[in-house]
């Protein structure tokens, strides 16, 4: 039987290659010549294989699938992909850790990115969420500082728990997200066993022009499952690619993961009087106030055929909204609207949206043109608007911006408007007392103590105790005891120094 014949190697111009193994040299021991263009170009391409790593969410994986509408939600939005029960839209999901680099282990304690691209018949809709419903900061001006504190020190190149707790305790709005991060939810068992959240509030508009504020929740049908800290650490050593492998293998064996999309819906006029500022990314809307309604389901059923082309080059932006869905006055969201597109311009290039994984499945009629690596050209279309020669014209009704009324005010740098029950510690306290089980509470304490014992200064540890005491006094005493600063199981009051307590209070009052 004949072996199948391999194709002939070529260079990237398709010209047959002279050898797979030998450089062009002057005699067997002579010098390699520069005009060995085949080997020289092979080296040059290799040297340029990496695109810049994402500054955040560098280590990730993804899969293709579909979204299917299961309930009539036309009363909330006119978005075409949500227009009728049974409608399916192809989509791609990318999951990631946040702080680690490309080679980092999958199971470290970190929030997880939950980025979705829906290839709708109105262009691409990206929902760039996390596996947590809240975030560490509420103003985009603090994001870069927050990430710097999670990354590496400039002198040693090492991650540093002291700088993490220093930043968190000086930014008490972080308490809700840090409670979730330090709970077992900070170490999800697999990507299939975690929820995804828009976290931000968005707006929607229906065909009659009625507007709503909404939050998106993708609830895992597999059930939420987490690793304990010890299990996560063991898996970090055993298989740093565990989450990547688990998702891939589940899809190969036909165990396609599924999430149920639920939405919380707030009538537009209720935002101003709601007990929490509904645009503050550090807060949830308690389910009792706005019970989630079912919308549809998302199923991942196809692995990428090429990791670089589909996962690394996948580029998401919350600016990719479709008619029927709009923004909200969330200041983190507004920052991300600029930042995501900008980072892809740097990382992939100005035509990143022409790559197959990012390209919409509808025709593009844009006046943007040229630049590096343009692949799709507009042809003879006019290159300016307005024009008299049949060029594209904006559909100003269909694509109208979804706005909201704003109080007239002076240009300035403001904290969020404070609503009746806004404070940085209330919701994490509820999570600790009313949602977590006894075991989860115990794990939260040991996780905090383990993390804050690892190269954290005594001064910052005092603030760590004061911070957790504000979340819950019992939690504060347990953390204090664990850190060797007194307190204990029975104690209601940890030994919080006045200086630390005052510092936390003064920062929190700025909420
Ligand atoms: P509910 O009892 O209605 O909901 C509690 C939520 O907490 C559920 O969605 C549950 O997810 C989730 N949850 C359970 N364990 C954890 C954990 N270790 N880390 C993070 N989330 C967890 O309560 P409320 O809506 O009144 O909210 C109470 C608190 O629950 C909030 O302060 C917030 O900390 C947390 N929470 C609230 C969410 C919301 O959108 N309202 C969303 C997520 C958390 P599941 O149902 O999948 O188990």
Automatic annotation (TrEMBL):
- Iron keyword on record: yes
Residues annotated as binding heme are 340
Entry's Pfam families?
A: Catalase, Catalase-rel
Q: Where's the Catalase core domain?
A: 10-393
Keyword list (alphabetical) reads:
Heme, Hydrogen peroxide, Iron, Metal-binding, Oxidoreductase, Peroxidase
Q: List, alphabetically, the GO terms of the cellular component aspect.
A: cytoplasm
Coiled-coil features, chain-numbered ranges: none
InterPro entries reported in the protein's UniProt record? Catalase, Catalase_3, Catalase_AS, Catalase_clade1/3, Catalase_core, Catalase_haem_BS, Catalase_immune_responsive, Catalase_sf
Stretches the record annotates as Disordered = 1-21
What GO biological process, any one, is recorded here?
A: hydrogen peroxide catabolic process
Q: Which cofactor does it need?
A: heme
Establish whether keyword Coiled coil is in the entry: no
Residues annotated as catalytic? 57, 130
Q: Which reaction does it catalyse?
A: 2 H2O2 = O2 + 2 H2O
Q: What is its EC number?
A: 1.11.1.6
GO terms of molecular function? catalase activity; heme binding; metal ion binding
* Family stated for the protein in its record: Belongs to the catalase family.
**What PANTHER family does the annotation carry?**
CATALASE (PTHR11465:SF9)
This chain's protein is named Catalase
Naturally occurring in which organism (per UniProt)? Candidatus Aeolococcus gillhamiae
**Organism phylogeny:** Bacteria, Bacillati, Candidatus Dormiibacterota, Candidatus Dormibacteria, Candidatus Aeolococcales
């Amino acid at each position: 039987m004949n072996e199948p014949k391999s194709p002939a190697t070529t260079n990237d111009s398709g010209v047959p290659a002279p050898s797979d193994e030998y450089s062009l040299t002057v005699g067997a021991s002579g010098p390699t010549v520069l005009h060995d263009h085949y080997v020289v170009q092979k080296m040059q391409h290799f040297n340029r294989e990496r695109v810049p790593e994402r500054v955040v969410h560098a280590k990730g994986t993804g899969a293709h699938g579909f979204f299917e509408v299961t309930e009539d939600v036309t009363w909330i939005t006119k978005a075409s992909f949500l227009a009728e029960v049974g409608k399916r839209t192809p989509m791609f999901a990318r999951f990631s850790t946040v702080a680690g680099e490309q080679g980092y282990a999958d199971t470290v304690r970190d929030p997880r990115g939950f980025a979705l691209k829906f290839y709708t018949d109105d262009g691409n809709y990206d929902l760039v969420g996390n596996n947590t419903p809240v975030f560490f900061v509420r103003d985009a001006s603090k994001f870069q500082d927050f990430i710097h504190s999670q990354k590496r020190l400039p002198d040693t190149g090492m991650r540093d728990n002291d700088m993490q707790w220093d930043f968190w305790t000086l930014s008490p709005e972080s308490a809700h997200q840090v409670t979730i991060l330090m709970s077992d939810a900070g170490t999800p068992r697999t990507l299939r066993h975690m929820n995804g959240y828009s976290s931000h509030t968005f707006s929607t508009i229906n065909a009659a022009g009625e507007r709503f504020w909404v939050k998106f929740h993708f609830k895992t049908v597999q059930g939420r499952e987490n690793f304990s800290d010890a299990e996560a650490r063991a898996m970090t050593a055993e298989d740093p690619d565990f989450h990547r492998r688990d998702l891939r293998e589940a899809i190969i064996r036909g165990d396609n993961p599924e999430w149920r999309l639920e939405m919380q819906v707030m009538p537009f006029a209720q935002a101003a009087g709601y007990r929490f500022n509904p645009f503050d990314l550090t807060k949830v809307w308690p389910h009792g106030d706005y019970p989630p309604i079912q919308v549809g389901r998302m199923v991942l059923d196809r692995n990428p055929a090429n990791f670089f082309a589909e996962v690394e080059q996948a580029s998401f932006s919350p600016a990719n909204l479709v008619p029927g869905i709009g923004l909200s006055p969330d200041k983190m969201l507004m920052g991300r609207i600029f930042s995501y597109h900008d980072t892809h311009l740097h990382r992939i290039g100005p035509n990143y949206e022409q790559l197959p994984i990012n390209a919409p499945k509808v025709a593009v009629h844009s006046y943007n043109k040229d630049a590096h690596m343009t692949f799709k050209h507009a042809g003879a279309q006019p290159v300016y608007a307005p024009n008299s020669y049949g060029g594209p014209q904006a559909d100003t009704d269909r694509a109208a911006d979804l706005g909201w009324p704003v109080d007239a005010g002076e240009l300035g740098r403001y904290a969020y408007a404070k609503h009746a029950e806004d404070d940085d510690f209330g919701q994490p306290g509820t999570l600790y007392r009313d949602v977590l089980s006894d075991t989860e509470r115990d794990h939260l304490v040991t996780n905090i103590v383990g993390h804050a014992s690892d190269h954290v200064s005594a001064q910052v540890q005092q603030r760590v105790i004061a911070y957790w005491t504000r979340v819950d006094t019992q939690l504060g005493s347990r953390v204090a005891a664990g850190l060797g600063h007194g307190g204990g199981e029975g104690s209601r009051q940890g030994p919080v120094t006045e200086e630390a307590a005052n510092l936390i209070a003064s920062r929190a009052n700025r909420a």
